[in-house]
Amino acid sequence: MSPQKWNEEIILLKNIIEKTGLIETTKWGASVYTHKGKNIVSLGAFKHHFALIFFNGIFIDDVYNVFSADTIAKAMRQWKFKSGAEINEEKILHYIYEAIKNSEEGKELKAEKHQPLPTAELLLEAFKKDSKLKEAFDKLTSGKQKEYTLYINEAKQEATKIKRVEKIIPIILQGLGLNDKYK
Protein backbone atom coordinates (compact mmCIF):
# COMPACT_ATOMS: atom_id res chain seq x y z
CA MET A 1 0.00 0.00 0.00
CA SER A 2 1.16 3.52 -0.67
CA PRO A 3 1.44 6.52 -0.33
CA GLN A 4 3.24 6.70 2.97
CA LYS A 5 1.50 9.91 4.09
CA TRP A 6 -1.49 7.90 5.37
CA ASN A 7 0.49 5.60 7.71
CA GLU A 8 -1.01 6.96 10.95
CA GLU A 9 -4.55 6.84 9.58
CA ILE A 10 -4.10 3.26 8.29
CA ILE A 11 -2.82 2.19 11.71
CA LEU A 12 -5.87 3.78 13.32
CA LEU A 13 -8.19 1.89 10.94
CA LYS A 14 -6.30 -1.36 11.61
CA ASN A 15 -6.77 -0.87 15.37
CA ILE A 16 -10.51 -0.41 14.86
CA ILE A 17 -10.79 -3.45 12.59
CA GLU A 18 -8.87 -5.62 15.10
CA LYS A 19 -11.72 -5.10 17.59
CA THR A 20 -14.03 -7.10 15.28
CA GLY A 21 -12.07 -10.35 15.44
CA LEU A 22 -11.43 -10.40 11.70
CA ILE A 23 -8.26 -12.15 10.56
CA GLU A 24 -5.70 -9.96 8.80
CA THR A 25 -3.96 -11.33 5.73
CA THR A 26 -2.23 -9.81 2.73
CA LYS A 27 -3.75 -10.20 -0.72
CA TRP A 28 -2.93 -8.22 -3.84
CA GLY A 29 -0.31 -6.34 -1.80
CA ALA A 30 -2.89 -4.94 0.64
CA SER A 31 -4.22 -5.76 4.09
CA VAL A 32 -7.38 -7.81 3.73
CA TYR A 33 -9.53 -8.84 6.67
CA THR A 34 -11.41 -12.13 6.50
CA HIS A 35 -14.12 -13.98 8.41
CA LYS A 36 -14.26 -17.77 8.07
CA GLY A 37 -12.16 -17.56 4.92
CA LYS A 38 -14.32 -14.90 3.25
CA ASN A 39 -12.92 -11.46 2.36
CA ILE A 40 -14.79 -8.78 4.32
CA VAL A 41 -12.86 -5.51 4.15
CA SER A 42 -9.55 -4.18 2.87
CA LEU A 43 -7.52 -1.03 3.37
CA GLY A 44 -6.26 1.20 0.60
CA ALA A 45 -3.92 4.18 0.63
CA PHE A 46 -3.94 6.41 -2.41
CA LYS A 47 -2.47 9.75 -3.42
CA HIS A 48 -5.39 11.92 -2.29
CA HIS A 49 -7.29 9.61 0.09
CA PHE A 50 -7.26 6.37 2.04
CA ALA A 51 -10.15 3.94 2.11
CA LEU A 52 -11.99 0.99 3.55
CA ILE A 53 -13.01 -1.34 0.75
CA PHE A 54 -15.90 -3.70 1.48
CA PHE A 55 -15.83 -6.79 -0.74
CA ASN A 56 -19.59 -7.37 -0.71
CA GLY A 57 -20.47 -3.82 0.23
CA ILE A 58 -23.40 -3.92 -2.17
CA PHE A 59 -25.34 -5.67 0.62
CA ILE A 60 -24.50 -3.10 3.31
CA ASP A 61 -27.23 -0.59 4.10
CA ASP A 62 -25.32 2.69 3.64
CA VAL A 63 -27.18 4.44 6.47
CA TYR A 64 -24.49 7.10 6.89
CA ASN A 65 -24.16 7.66 3.13
CA VAL A 66 -20.39 7.16 3.19
CA PHE A 67 -19.80 5.00 0.13
CA SER A 68 -18.32 6.85 -2.81
CA ALA A 69 -20.28 6.99 -6.04
CA ASP A 70 -17.47 5.40 -8.04
CA THR A 71 -17.52 1.69 -7.43
CA ILE A 72 -14.49 -0.42 -8.18
CA ALA A 73 -16.41 -3.61 -8.88
CA LYS A 74 -20.02 -4.70 -8.98
CA ALA A 75 -20.13 -5.95 -5.40
CA MET A 76 -17.45 -3.77 -3.81
CA ARG A 77 -18.06 -0.48 -2.07
CA GLN A 78 -15.44 2.04 -1.01
CA TRP A 79 -15.51 4.40 1.95
CA LYS A 80 -13.02 7.19 1.20
CA PHE A 81 -11.36 9.37 3.81
CA LYS A 82 -9.43 12.56 3.10
CA SER A 83 -8.18 13.06 6.67
CA GLY A 84 -7.87 11.22 9.95
CA ALA A 85 -10.52 13.53 11.43
CA GLU A 86 -13.13 11.74 9.29
CA ILE A 87 -12.52 8.40 11.02
CA ASN A 88 -15.52 7.54 13.19
CA GLU A 89 -14.99 4.27 15.05
CA GLU A 90 -18.67 3.74 15.84
CA LYS A 91 -19.75 4.11 12.20
CA ILE A 92 -16.88 1.97 10.93
CA LEU A 93 -17.70 -0.82 13.37
CA HIS A 94 -21.37 -0.62 12.37
CA TYR A 95 -20.46 -1.22 8.69
CA ILE A 96 -17.93 -3.96 9.46
CA TYR A 97 -20.33 -5.87 11.71
CA GLU A 98 -23.02 -5.63 9.06
CA ALA A 99 -20.53 -6.95 6.47
CA ILE A 100 -19.69 -9.88 8.78
CA LYS A 101 -23.40 -10.59 9.32
CA ASN A 102 -24.01 -10.52 5.58
CA SER A 103 -21.13 -12.93 5.06
CA GLU A 104 -22.55 -15.26 7.74
CA GLU A 105 -25.89 -15.18 5.89
CA GLY A 106 -24.13 -16.13 2.66
CA LYS A 107 -24.82 -12.85 0.91
CA GLU A 108 -22.34 -12.47 -1.90
CA LEU A 109 -22.50 -11.42 -5.49
CA LYS A 110 -21.36 -14.36 -7.57
CA ALA A 111 -19.24 -13.71 -10.64
CA GLU A 112 -21.17 -14.14 -13.84
CA LYS A 113 -19.98 -16.93 -16.05
CA HIS A 114 -19.07 -15.65 -19.45
CA GLN A 115 -21.37 -16.66 -22.23
CA PRO A 116 -19.58 -18.43 -25.08
CA LEU A 117 -19.60 -16.53 -28.33
CA PRO A 118 -20.29 -18.29 -31.59
CA THR A 119 -17.05 -18.58 -33.55
CA ALA A 120 -16.63 -15.99 -36.29
CA GLU A 121 -17.96 -17.19 -39.68
CA LEU A 122 -14.70 -16.45 -41.51
CA LEU A 123 -12.81 -18.52 -38.96
CA LEU A 124 -15.24 -21.42 -39.42
CA GLU A 125 -14.59 -21.21 -43.17
CA ALA A 126 -10.84 -21.34 -42.52
CA PHE A 127 -11.34 -24.45 -40.37
CA LYS A 128 -12.97 -26.23 -43.34
CA LYS A 129 -9.82 -25.59 -45.38
CA ASP A 130 -7.35 -26.53 -42.63
CA SER A 131 -8.15 -29.23 -40.07
CA LYS A 132 -4.92 -28.50 -38.12
CA LEU A 133 -6.13 -24.94 -37.60
CA LYS A 134 -9.43 -26.24 -36.18
CA GLU A 135 -7.53 -28.65 -33.94
CA ALA A 136 -5.24 -25.88 -32.65
CA PHE A 137 -8.20 -23.57 -32.06
CA ASP A 138 -10.10 -26.25 -30.13
CA LYS A 139 -7.09 -26.69 -27.80
CA LEU A 140 -7.22 -23.01 -26.82
CA THR A 141 -9.08 -21.92 -23.69
CA SER A 142 -12.57 -20.55 -24.20
CA GLY A 143 -11.27 -17.09 -23.25
CA LYS A 144 -8.63 -17.18 -25.99
CA GLN A 145 -11.18 -18.43 -28.50
CA LYS A 146 -13.42 -15.54 -27.52
CA GLU A 147 -10.54 -13.05 -28.05
CA TYR A 148 -10.15 -14.21 -31.62
CA THR A 149 -13.85 -14.09 -32.39
CA LEU A 150 -14.17 -10.58 -30.96
CA TYR A 151 -11.08 -9.44 -32.86
CA ILE A 152 -12.58 -10.56 -36.15
CA ASN A 153 -16.13 -9.41 -35.45
CA GLU A 154 -15.03 -5.93 -34.31
CA ALA A 155 -13.90 -5.10 -37.84
CA LYS A 156 -16.52 -3.21 -39.79
CA GLN A 157 -15.40 -4.01 -43.31
CA GLU A 158 -15.27 -7.50 -44.76
CA ALA A 159 -11.78 -6.84 -46.17
CA THR A 160 -10.49 -6.02 -42.68
CA LYS A 161 -12.08 -9.18 -41.27
CA ILE A 162 -10.34 -11.28 -43.95
CA LYS A 163 -6.97 -9.62 -43.18
CA ARG A 164 -7.45 -10.30 -39.49
CA VAL A 165 -8.17 -13.97 -40.10
CA GLU A 166 -5.03 -14.23 -42.23
CA LYS A 167 -3.03 -12.52 -39.48
CA ILE A 168 -4.23 -14.77 -36.64
CA ILE A 169 -3.94 -18.16 -38.36
CA PRO A 170 -0.18 -18.53 -37.60
CA ILE A 171 -0.75 -17.40 -33.99
CA ILE A 172 -3.51 -19.98 -33.47
CA LEU A 173 -1.33 -22.71 -35.01
CA GLN A 174 1.33 -21.84 -32.41
CA GLY A 175 -1.24 -22.47 -29.69
CA LEU A 176 -1.18 -18.86 -28.53
CA GLY A 177 -3.93 -16.44 -27.62
CA LEU A 178 -4.31 -13.18 -29.49
CA ASN A 179 -2.82 -11.11 -26.65
CA ASP A 180 -0.25 -13.60 -25.32
CA LYS A 181 2.64 -11.62 -26.78
CA TYR A 182 1.81 -8.81 -24.32
CA LYS A 183 1.99 -11.02 -21.24
What do these coordinates show?
Strands 1-2-3-4-5 form a five-stranded antiparallel beta sheet. The protein has helices at residues 7-18, 89-104, 121-129, 131-139, 142-154, 158-173, and strands spanning 23-27, 30-35, 38-45, 50-54, 77-81. The relative contact order is 0.10. 41% of the residues lie in helices and 16% in strands. With 183 residues, it is of the alpha+beta class. The protein has six helices and five strands, in the order H-E-E-E-E-E-H-H-H-H-H. The chain has two domains: 4-104, Aspartate Aminotransferase, domain 1 (Alpha-Beta Complex); 121-182, no CATH class.
Distance, first to last CA: 24 Å
Q: For the largest beta sheet, what order do the strands appear in spatially?
A: 1-2-3-4-5
- Which percent band covers the strand fraction? 15-25%
The second-level CATH architecture of the largest domain is Alpha-Beta Complex
Count of domain modules: 2
CATH level-3 fold name of the largest domain: Aspartate Aminotransferase, domain 1
**What does the radius of gyration come to?**
24 Å
Major pleated sheet: 5 strands, antiparallel
